[in-house]
Amino acid sequence: MLAKRIIPCLDVKDGTTVKGVQFINFRDAGDPVELGKQYSLMGADELVYLDITASHEGRRTFTDLVRRIAAEVSIPFTVGGGIHELADVERLLAAGADKVSVNSSALRRPDLITEIAERFGRQECVCAIDARLEDDGQWRCYLNGGRIPTDRFLFEWAHEAQERGAGEILFTSMNHDGSKQGFANEALARLSDELTIPIIASGGAGFREHFLDVFTKGHADAALAASVFHFGEIPIPALKHYLADNGINVRL
Amino acid sequence: MRVAIIKYNAGNIYSVYCACRRLGCDAVITDDPATIREADRVIFPGVGEAKAAMEYLNQKGLADLIRSLTQPVLGICIGMQLLCSHSEEGDVDCLGIFDVPVIRFRPSSKDFKVPQMGWNTIERFLQDEGNTNSLFVNLHEGDYVYYVHSYHVPLCAYTIAQTDYDGFYSAALHKGNFWATQFHPEKSGSVGEQILRNFLS
After folding, report:
1. Could you tell me if residue A204 is inside a domain?
2. Which residues of chain A neighbour B118 with C-beta distances below 8 Å?
3. Which of B11, B19, B192 minimises the CB distance to A120?
4. Which pTM does this prediction carry?
5. Interface pTM (ipTM) of the complex?
6. CA angle B16-B19-B21, nearest 5°?
């Protein structure tokens, strides 16, 4: 049976991990490669590396980093951030990334998803969506890490992304992100039930119960989190045993 | 041990190279016929689309070369599918090493997403005169491996392991000097490493 996936997300700037990481010794805490290896040993099912560097020079650093991750980490990893055109995708996949995640650039130019799917296959393209549940009850999509509202809405955009060839949807609820109050299970369940491609849930993980809920109530195929893993608040091995004890099929 | 990784218009080839290097093998990514013929082992990897891949292989003369190989060959993911007779993806004739067609997942319920993406278990290793197929020595039924695919090979005479996703399909195939896995050993952690080690030993 296909296992539900647990995915740590690492923000990378100028080749080093941004958020503090407390579960390994200080010397290696900023090294994305060492962190990836540690997470892999702990039982993470995949990794996501987000490049939050803006500069051109930084992008080259990130590509070198992707090459080093591919050389040393033996589980799949997705890279995102700074992907604007097919050439960026080509560069990152050639460096050994398994999938690319597109967000703002796909909202600005949806053809990018079509192009990636046609050139590299739909399984290579993750469409990341940052959306906020507004007062009018609509889930509005945002650009640039949640800073700029758009006139697109979550469910419509997710359907379009699927039709265009996205292989997965990575949905971050801006209302839940950072709250540690649990994932946006209602919206996630609707996404998962309406779409035929896998859904990765993001935003809101605080306790292990939230992961159980996101799989049972949110019908998610995978759950992504950052700080609860980086700060050692929820150790991945303990989380997976807890999920298995509660009837969720995970890889132990 | 010299390993030739066949270079063609498919993705994820560098990861296979990295996995071979981690196991201490002298691996090269190449489309040079002489280098491929002389290698001790050949890996035919990839993520991609069947029709475009077959067109490329035919154009470059790689299709006939692969059919004629006599050393152990391992097809991975789309590489495995291309070793079969025909793929529903793009309705294209493939290399025909394994006389079995590749078909799309047609889920019986919305619980089964396509592509299948993630870790699933391998089971029912074929026992050959009491011995587990050499590809699965030191592995256990129920071990998890990483899959990314929308098309699959049904169970057939060449199946040496199976996986359940809305029904059983071929996780791995074997015939003569050709082995193939639908999953990605190069992305399957320590389990995948053991499978590659088995193939490369």
Report:
1. yes
2. 2-5, 45-46, 198, 221-222
3. B11
4. 0.94
5. 0.93
6. 110
